[in-house]
Design goal:
This protein is an alpha+beta fold. Helix content is 31%, strand content 24%. The protein folds into two domains: 87 residues; 60 residues, no CATH class. The protein has a four-stranded antiparallel β-sheet. A three-stranded antiparallel β-sheet has the order 1-5-4, with helices on one face. Helix 1 runs antiparallel to helix 2. It is globular.
Length: 164
């Protein structure tokens, strides 16, 4: 069953899928419709899941499940992955490549390969204060507080040279 995203508890589990490009308004509308249909039928061994989604910055698809209502199972996670893969194919986007890194410069979101991200650091185009998207967060609470953070406060910090 779909619920408004902002009604999920901070402990609700999240999965963040980052597109390799900005989505168009038409794509967002179509993906939203597909996400609503998917979530309405998303179950755990035949039992409803209390879940939601949102699309942030026209580039991130966030799925969330309130596990205090019903836990997700391997099968329910598999069905969400099938939904994501189907979405990738339908819209010609890459949502599952964890080697794509997104960061902000001003209000612009940039998505580059990990190697390009490392090169930007070497060239001092970005640094530890650059806002990155920590797609490794696991709960709604973390998503709200630790998703959009300076690189030196995320797993990205391993690529930032230590100040001398």
């Amino acid at each position: 069953m779909i619920v408004p995203f902002n009604t999920l508890p901070t402990e609700a589990r999240v999965w963040i899928y980052q597109a390799n490009r900005e989505l168009t308004e038409t794509e967002i509308e179509e993906i939203s419709k597909k996400a609503e249909v998917f979530i309405e039928s998303w179950t755990r061994h035949g039992e409803d899941l209390k879940a939601s989604y949102e699309i942030k910055y026209n580039q991130f698809l966030v799925l969330a499940v309130d596990e205090s209502f019903n836990d997700v199972s391997g099968c329910s996670i598999d069905s969400s992955v099938r939904f994501i893969k189907s979405t990738e194919q339908s819209f010609g986007i890459d949502l599952m490549n964890k080697l794509n890194i997104a960061f902000k410069i001003g209000e612009n979101i940039n998505t580059v390969s990990l190697s390009a991200f490392q090169q930007y650091i070497k060239e001092e185009k970005i640094d530890g204060d650059t806002i990155v998207f920590n797609n490794m967060v696991q709960s709604v609470g973390e998503y709200q507080t630790n998703w959009e953070v300076p690189a030196n406060q995320s797993w990205h910090q391993r690529f930032i040279p230590v100040a001398k």
